[in-house]
Amino acid sequence: MEAKKLFFAVSLIVIFLMYAVPYLVLNGTAGPYTLVFWAGLSAAYLAFVFLLTRR
Amino acid sequence: MESLSTYLALVIYLGLGTVVALFSKRFLKRDTKDFFTAGGRFGTLLSSLSYAATTYSAFMFIGLVGFAYSTGVGTIGFELVYFVGTLFLLYYIAPKYWALHNRFGYISPAEVLSERYGSRVVGAAITLLALVSLIPYASSQVIGVAIAAEGASGGAVPYTWAVVIAIVVALLWSVIAGIWSVGWTDVLQGLIMLGTGILMVLWVYVWGYSNASFDLASLGSLSYVPNQFWSFAVFLNMTVPWFFFAVTNPQVVQRLFAPKDRKALNGMIIWFGVYGLLFTVLVTLLGLMLRGMTLGGTFPLIEMINRDSVTPTLLGMAPLWLSVLGLVAVLAASVSTIDGIILTLSSMAVRDILIPYRPSPSAKTGLLVGRIVIVVLALACTLFALSRPGFIVDLAVLSSSLLLPQAPVVIGMFVWKRGGKTSATLAIVSGFTVAVALYFLKVSPLGIPTNVWTLVISTLVYVGAAMMEKAPEGVQKFIKAWEGT
Predict the structure, then answer these.
(1) ipTM given for this complex
(2) Taking Cα atoms as reference points, which of B21, B18, B264 lies closest to residue B255?
(3) Is residue B166, in this structure, part of any structural domain at all?
(4) B30 occurs within a structural domain
(5) What does pTM read for this prediction?
(6) Can you give the residue range of the structural domain that contains B19?
(7) How far is B187 from chain A (nearest CA, A)?
(8) Do A32 and B235 touch (CB under 8 A)?
(9) CATH code of residue B64
(10) Is residue B439 in a domain?
């Protein structure tokens, strides 16, 4: 898949997950899970952008 | 904190920053383009730290810490939606803006839109929108410094004095060498902000959790969403304008002109990302840890209505060295944002209002008008800040809400060949009208968040009008400029 299309598809999924997982999946689960999810997904997305800019 | 130490620390910071600003003057070529965009000569270090320091402000050190303390973990989600949105938009749009600057020498972000949509009216409308919308945001930076100084010094540094100091420093560092002095002082300030953020979190952990571990679960509903504050509607409403911040806030768009080559531009995106993620996690963690200490009885309870005083309270309780460093970091965060905003707005006033209506002014006239606008904006921010208008986060989101109608116009420019001056202007005017009306009426029709309404209306107006409007000649030259980026 062309890099830009791959980036667009992955980005849409990440943006969707940023909203959906904390509100629909973790929804009201006490503990570090929501914070870790948001920080972890953001870090993974940054790594993904890094890899694409290196191509 | 002893007032003498506070003033001494401020003098050292101001002295060091001014030396850096004067040092940067050697890079300045005496023309408008170089003054505002560095003529595309910034390397990776300057580009990335300048972008980060311009973006991250007192909003983070004062607003976000207090927001996390009061509303919980939703705060980090709110800020990280901005982070992901910015990376997403920068990856697509930064190379295109950079290529346009490189090819045609644009200086102001609105100038690009005027060219693409074939009318100076578009650039003037965007400039007026930015002038109105960014005053609350720039003022919130000054307010952050003032309440931090007041709280940390126990009133020894009065609110009014702190407002004046922040504005004077921002003014001075803007006019010395334009983007060069702003950029180099941003490097200094960016390092101070991040270093202090790390030290504050470490100190709070050692001080507040020496006998217990920090357990987010102990915060109960503050450790998850949805909770009493972060309903999905509130989260969506606050994140929508934040998501588009990178394309609607001209002070960060103009930074995309500065990198010297594609390698520096890519480096800017990645290092800004590393900085931003670390800084966001640090400041929100700080707020959550302080809330945990309140539950443990080691930090006073601060009510939601006083949430901007969480960091100042911490600075008042911290040892002298950390109080002083914290205050300097808040000042650095604020100044690095204010000077960026007033520099960009002054360039827009020159390029999008002066030049189209008085063609071919001399370079000297252009710089003079730019400097006058800088001073007028600084005075406007001072007056706004002295009126203590509201919470820092609320002011920041208000600014981005008012700027939001630009989003379809900017994104449309890069992804669509249709659209001209009518569609662009109508989108901005209609979106701005909706944003202002819903903000003052305090209503959300059909239960849909106000910022979603603003985005949807401006997008529909833009697309609808563009379908009926012939695109101006010259669209192809734009597309050719960024082909292959």
Answers:
(1) 0.97
(2) B264
(3) yes
(4) yes
(5) 0.93
(6) 3-397
(7) 22
(8) no
(9) 1.20.1730.10
(10) no
